Amino acid sequence: MSPRVDQELKAANHELQSAEAELDELTQQLRTFEAVVDTRLGNLLDQLSELNAETTALDAKLRHIREERLFGTDLMRYLDGAPQPSRPPDLTSLPPSGLAHWKAIHGTVDSSLTSPDVNLPDIKVLYRKLARRYHPDLARSDVDRASSNEQMTEINRAYNAGDLSVLMKLAGISIPYGVDLKHPPSQPVKLINESLSELEQIEQKLKKVRRQINRLSSLTIVKLSLEVKLARHQGRDLLNEMAANLQYKVARKMAERDYLRSQIQASGVSE
């Protein structure tokens, strides 16, 4: 190995180690803050999500009852067979849990994919983590809220389809080299591409680490953590303010749910 190549390797290794240390620190800070958010706001976020899902279902049922009475049962049966225009998704709602078909689709990771060489996350755990991380009610600006809504749309779509690879990418988790999640390998996969030189492998890792740093730095929840620190210096408890706002939203959603239920009951149709 020439002195120039040796020097380039040392410089690249030093740069990679610095970037990895920065990523580790950012990741640890994110995990710590996510745990605080889960403790302070987690139950309220879950409750609001469940209420959103429930009110959406009740609203759809009430509309169906009214349309059936307006157009008649026979016409509604005919229309049921025609393509229905889709409604905008409720981006703050989590998919209902406990349904049989959900369990069938979103069970634990195939055991053929879990080996010392290929270690994949559970799709349910990963979904819950992403849903909390990108929850629109954690956004502090319209721009961040719009971004969170877009991310939640993609997260929900991937989870509904059981697409672990998309969720892993959104979470910044690398898919092991050579692993096709749609067609699991029967044998453990070697993860290192031996055709790359040592310097090329280091540069490839460095690019990957920098992408992860940029992605984490742009997360809404990371921006929120900075705002929480700033508010603390101002003598405010921002998370407590957010909890009060979430409680208000939950109360409004509960009132909306109860109203929809009363409308359905008044129609003479049981839920």
Write the layout of secondary structure elements.
Layout (H helix, E strand, L loop, with lengths): L2 H69 L1 H8 L19 H6 L17 H11 L8 H19 L3 H7 L27 H20 L2 H14 L4 H29 L5
Helix pairs in contact: 1-2, 1-7, 1-9, 4-5, 4-6, 5-6
Describe this structure in words.
This protein is elongated. By secondary structure, it is an all-alpha fold. The protein has one domain (3-80, 89-266). The protein contains 9 helices and no strands. Helices cover 68% and strands 0% of the residues. Helix 1 (3-71) runs antiparallel to helix 2 (73-80).
Radius of gyration: 24 Å
Instruction: Identify low-pLDDT runs.
Output: 88-117, 184-192
Percent of residues in helices comes to 55-70%
Write down the overall geometry: elongated
So how many helices?
9
Proportion of residues in extended strands: under 5%
Key traits:
271 residues; mainly alpha; elongated
Short recap of the structure:
The chain has 271 residues and is mostly helical. The protein has 9 helices and no strands.
